[in-house]
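Researcher: I'd like a structural prediction for the single chain below. Treat it as a standalone chain; there are no partners to consider.
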Amino acid sequence: MKAVVIRRYGATEVLQYEDVEQPKIEPTQLLVKVRASSVNPIDWKIRQGMLSLIAGSKFPKILGLDVAGDVVEVGSGVTRFKPGDAIYGSTSFPGGGYAEFAAVPENLVALKPTNLSYEEAAAVPLAALTALQALRDQGNIQTGQTVLINGAAGGVGSFAVQIAKALGAVVTGVSSTKNLDLVKSLGADRVIDYTQQDFTEDIAQYDIIFDAVGKRSLSQTKRVLKPNGIYITTLPSPEVFLESVLTAFLPGQKAKFILQKPNTQDLIYLKELIEAGKIRVVIDRTYPLQELAAAHGYSETGRVVGKIVLAQPVVDIAVSI
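Model: Treating it as a single chain, here is the predicted structure.
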């Protein structure tokens, strides 16, 4: 099969499109014909070696944590899926989605939303799960609360705006000038143009501040956070980690960070929201798999609106019954 592999950590040139052996599945895995995958910042951070302590030094590696495709074969212990099912979800860390076929754990995927294409579905898992688990699990979001999303036009942020609205919050989205209309269209009740105004100097206060781009800390945002408010970030910097430990044992404002945990139940919940028309997918650019290096390079600019998707041509496949 064709795949993009790395044989060492480094810049985009370490991504090589080549023939590799098709994966063999374990009893609790599915063999999936990958129709689409996506690029998340964690993918190129792994590629650069920033997460080498977790990703390890064994090569070659196939990255890519998001997949959407068709089940070709199921392991002997699989009970919820059958060959021919269209699924979406996550691969095991550090990836496997940048390939024609992927071995995917049963408990990390769900049936694909019926109203999404494979490309749209592949954009959902990591980013939308991060947004959901940050707001619901870390933020304990409640109907009527005020929520600010920093980075509201990005991959995680665009989902966070919609999920917060679906959960009944009053949402303020922070983005650049050119993306204000998009953020409004996603459901934001109010928008702040960060090129014109620093949201930490806003006159409003919020129950939850979700920093979907990991640019701030509790100490920088506490003035606009309510006395018992929660600051959540996607980037557990040393400062945020220390703040999270200290505030966990003190009354008042809390600092938390989100480490997304892929699972079937949350993917089913997102599927229901998507099929109900409460979440739509924003795709910035679509690349063929063989142009993954260009896709990674674009992601690294930090100017992505929504998600970057990798599409593979749909061809007939034989499934194992």
